[in-house]
Write a structure and sequence with these properties.
single chain; 2 helices; 83 residues; alpha+beta; elongated; 3-stranded antiparallel sheet
Length: 83
Protein backbone atom coordinates (compact mmCIF):
# COMPACT_ATOMS: atom_id res chain seq x y z
CA UNK A 1 0.00 0.00 0.00
CA UNK A 2 2.76 2.46 0.89
CA UNK A 3 4.40 1.84 -2.51
CA UNK A 4 1.10 2.64 -4.24
CA UNK A 5 0.95 5.98 -2.43
CA UNK A 6 4.54 6.87 -3.28
CA UNK A 7 4.05 5.91 -6.93
CA UNK A 8 1.03 8.25 -7.15
CA UNK A 9 3.28 11.18 -6.13
CA UNK A 10 0.99 12.01 -3.21
CA UNK A 11 2.35 14.16 -0.40
CA UNK A 12 3.09 11.99 2.61
CA UNK A 13 2.66 13.64 6.00
CA UNK A 14 2.77 12.29 9.53
CA UNK A 15 -0.27 11.79 11.74
CA UNK A 16 0.98 14.65 13.93
CA UNK A 17 1.26 16.97 10.93
CA UNK A 18 -2.28 16.09 9.88
CA UNK A 19 -3.61 16.76 13.40
CA UNK A 20 -1.77 20.08 13.67
CA UNK A 21 -3.06 21.19 10.26
CA UNK A 22 -6.65 20.22 11.12
CA UNK A 23 -6.38 21.97 14.51
CA UNK A 24 -5.08 25.17 12.88
CA UNK A 25 -7.78 25.18 10.19
CA UNK A 26 -10.61 24.53 12.66
CA UNK A 27 -9.41 27.03 15.28
CA UNK A 28 -8.94 29.69 12.62
CA UNK A 29 -12.37 29.12 11.05
CA UNK A 30 -14.28 28.72 14.33
CA UNK A 31 -12.54 31.08 16.77
CA UNK A 32 -15.56 32.22 18.81
CA UNK A 33 -18.59 29.98 18.49
CA UNK A 34 -21.12 28.27 20.68
CA UNK A 35 -22.49 24.89 19.68
CA UNK A 36 -25.93 23.59 20.59
CA UNK A 37 -26.93 19.96 20.50
CA UNK A 38 -28.18 16.98 22.45
CA UNK A 39 -25.83 15.35 24.95
CA UNK A 40 -25.73 11.56 24.85
CA UNK A 41 -23.46 8.72 25.97
CA UNK A 42 -22.25 10.74 28.95
CA UNK A 43 -19.87 9.09 31.40
CA UNK A 44 -17.68 10.21 34.28
CA UNK A 45 -14.95 7.65 34.99
CA UNK A 46 -12.71 7.75 38.06
CA UNK A 47 -10.51 10.37 36.36
CA UNK A 48 -13.30 12.88 37.12
CA UNK A 49 -13.51 14.11 33.53
CA UNK A 50 -16.86 13.98 31.75
CA UNK A 51 -16.99 12.31 28.33
CA UNK A 52 -19.99 12.73 26.05
CA UNK A 53 -21.31 12.93 22.51
CA UNK A 54 -22.84 16.21 21.36
CA UNK A 55 -25.20 15.54 18.48
CA UNK A 56 -28.02 16.80 16.34
CA UNK A 57 -29.91 15.32 13.38
CA UNK A 58 -26.99 16.03 11.01
CA UNK A 59 -23.92 14.94 12.95
CA UNK A 60 -22.12 14.19 16.18
CA UNK A 61 -18.86 15.11 17.89
CA UNK A 62 -17.15 13.32 20.76
CA UNK A 63 -16.13 15.66 23.56
CA UNK A 64 -14.74 15.66 27.06
CA UNK A 65 -14.87 18.19 29.84
CA UNK A 66 -11.83 18.23 32.13
CA UNK A 67 -12.60 17.89 35.80
CA UNK A 68 -10.96 21.28 36.45
CA UNK A 69 -13.71 22.96 34.34
CA UNK A 70 -16.62 21.64 36.38
CA UNK A 71 -18.58 24.31 38.25
CA UNK A 72 -21.30 23.48 40.77
CA UNK A 73 -24.70 25.22 40.67
CA UNK A 74 -23.63 27.37 43.66
CA UNK A 75 -20.72 28.75 41.59
CA UNK A 76 -17.98 26.83 43.37
CA UNK A 77 -15.54 24.65 41.47
CA UNK A 78 -16.23 20.92 41.81
CA UNK A 79 -13.75 19.09 44.03
CA UNK A 80 -11.19 17.18 42.00
CA UNK A 81 -10.80 13.46 42.51
CA UNK A 82 -7.57 12.25 44.07
CA UNK A 83 -6.97 9.09 42.02
Amino acid sequence: MQNDIVEQNKEIISVGELNRSAKYLLEDAFANIAVIGEISNMSRPSSGHIYFTLKDEDGAILRYLPESYLILPNGNQAPQSRT
